[in-house]
Amino acid sequence: MVRFLCVLVLFLFSFSACGRSAPVKSESGNNTVPVSNNMPDEKVFIGEGSAPEFSDARNNAYYDIMKKAAIFVLGEQKFNDNKSQLDGLLSYPADRKYIFGETEKAPAEKQKKWLSNSRDANGNLALKLQATINIKKLKGDLEALSLKESAPASTPGLAGTPADLSQPAAPQSTAVTNQVDLSGVDVSALSFLVYYNLNDPAIKNDGDQAAYSKWAVDNLNRELSALSVQTFDLDTVEKLVSERNLLHEASTGSLGVGLLLAQKVYAELYAEVTPAVTYEGNKANVIVNVKVFVRTTGALIASIEKGGQQYESVSLAASIKASMREAVRKIKDELVVSLRKYVNSGRFYFARLTGVSSYRDASKFASAAGKIEGVVNMTLKSGSKEEKVYDYSLQFKGNPTDAVDRLFEALSGVTGFEKLDLKQIRGNELTFTLE
User: Fold this and answer.
1) Rounded distance between C-alpha atoms, residue 360 and residue 169, angstroms
2) Which among 199, 210, 310, 385 would be 20 to 30 A from 371, CA to CA?
3) Which of 186, 228, 230 is nearest to 428 (CA)?
4) 192-345: which CATH topology?
């Protein structure tokens, strides 16, 4: 009987051990490819890229970081077997949706960081990027693809050379059709607040980084002013941060300082600027990242990153400023296109109606507005019968005064709206009353 029990215990132990899946060693480093059930939702990777021009070096760094993430999910052999199919998914800019903070907001600690950027002896810009990858999303998209299963490993030297993983495949040209001519779109009616991310740990711990961020804000304000876009002076804005204690409000709430500032001055758009500066002696390279949001909706309408060439001047500060000016000028050229697209497709407004006696009138207001020429969308967001206040999200192809005039035209003669009047216009906020 004792012998039987011993044999049974050994059998169960062996069966349990066989049933467990061990992690598989990655051939490219110390990381292991985890069992899919135990895979983390996110993970930090570091990628590198090199090329004569910033855009190419950046694209290569993004690809390198996504290649490592894909190998983490799939294993190196399966990645190699499907490389041609994966290149488009993992190349810039398609891969940005997997990087926290690129296409949507993310906490400061999850934002990507340029760890180094410098020119080598051949004049190539060498970049090193750290980013938090959304493994859960990447894994889901990879599983949706029809990927080939890995073939058994072949004897070295008999199956030819492995695929070159050092650089992404050359992008395929795609025909662009039905392009809209945006050259005549006027952006001068926009109000735009530019600030830097005070919650960025680099700024909190490094006075130089704070100075670089202020230089970047001043540069972008200058470029926007040249477009006749309304901007806000940095010194005035910083006084507002101090007077209203906005830094404390941001640290204890869910809103960033940039959004809080934009709310205080009723700016339609606000931007967060993050520069990455590297230098050796008086030689300096600067990369500037700009994200632009609509204040009333939080919609991201532009995310642009450009790098200046390496400059060497009489002082380090002069070199940094020269490289930064070049980077911001490149950003402006791309940003003006994004702003024109935003205006052309319909600006976002916050509309409020007060003195409303019933939900029926609130609904009638939205229905009438929705039929106006130029209105893309009119949606009732919230309301209170007791307070007689209803709030709406309005997307309209035109400026605020056009929106007001057309609303009055649409509601003239409509029963219940005889006393409709305008209370105030503040930026892209419109307040009407029925009292």
Assistant:
1) 58
2) 385
3) 230
4) Double Stranded RNA Binding Domain (3.30.160)
